[in-house]
Design a protein that fits this description.
alpha/beta; two-stranded antiparallel sheet; 27% strand
Amino acid sequence: MAEDLALRQGGQPRLVHITAAGALHVDNAHRLPKFLVALLRTRPVAAVRLDLRGVGRVDDVGVAAIVLCGREAARRGIAFAIDGCSRAVAAAIRDYGAGHLLPARPRRGMALRRPHTGIACRAETRPPRGGPRPRGDRPPWTDAGQWPCRWR
């Protein structure tokens, strides 16, 4: 075994964090549900969060162990959620059909920018603000069908 699975428990008395590090594969996947069941038997727990950020590799048996942990927690009426994981682990969990256990993906929208509404007028092309206009001259903003302002 090149990579072994390390499991750690932390958190508050009723909210338990389980941190997994290493590889979660066929040789060691059985340890994760056993760890969770032993934890649930020894103390009252309201919620379990499984942190998979340290897991670099997972196979189908490892994903099945994660799903089994979620089912065992649901059978006992305990909230179960995956706190975080790498993209490869998340893809394997989604391919297995257990994407509901994953944290919600952040929405990546377009960057906010200033709205481009209205028009921009240059000072020399603006019509005068009141007062009489000369009758013989045409204002500069009416020359050759040009608009006095441009759209932004």
